[in-house]
Amino acid sequence: MNKQDVPYRLKGLIIKKRLELRPGTKLEFLPSTLMVVGTASTEVPAAVLIANGMPTQPISISGTVPNVAGQWEGIRVNSSSVEHVMNYCNIDGAGSVAGSCATFKSALTIGRRTSCTAILSKGSFTNLSITNSGGYGIAYRSSDNPVVSANSFQLCFGKCV
After folding, report:
1. Are the CB atoms for 100 and 116 separated by under 8 Å?
2. Closest to 30 measured CA to CA, from 108, 103, 109, 94
3. What share of the chain is helix, strand, coil (3-state, %, to 5)?
4. Per-residue pLDDT reduced to its tens digit, 80-100
5. Does residue 1 register a pLDDT over 80?
6. 33: which of 11, 14, 71, 160 lies 20 to 30 Å off by Cα?
7. Is the pLDDT of residue 160 over 60?
8. What percent of the chain has pLDDT over 70?
9. How far apart are the first and last CA of the chain?
10. Cα–Cα distances in angstroms (integers) from residue 9 to residues 31, 33, 107, 157, in the given order
11. Region class of 127: left (phi > 0), else alpha (psi between -120 and 50), else beta
């Protein structure tokens, strides 16, 4: 997706192939919707998210109303690809509900665990700014070993990581 003068407003997004978000792209999610890389029930190794912003042009992923905690579900990375990149992205207002295969709410969930079959997720999740999460900022199983570093958090209603 390319940067536009107005944000892309979405009722949800399921990524089953490779999706690249260009620097400066803005996505807005309607209440109670989410972005899923892969699917909730089946492994989709071809599902890859490349969201590589820049310090001067971060990628914005938010709800439709700025600065409101937990208005949309968040981002779930349910694909075993090692190619995932989220760098210089601002995530605001996510973490409204726990997904069907999770026991917690979070703005960004890397991998799947708990009541469903675990999916090992890898990739690089760096320089993220996560604000107004209705739960955790980032949730992942440490044994999956994704690269998670240099991220900032404000107003998370759960633990930041």
Report:
1. yes
2. 94
3. 0, 40, 55
4. 888 999 999 999 999 887 655
5. no
6. 160
7. yes
8. 84
9. 28
10. 11, 11, 18, 25
11. left
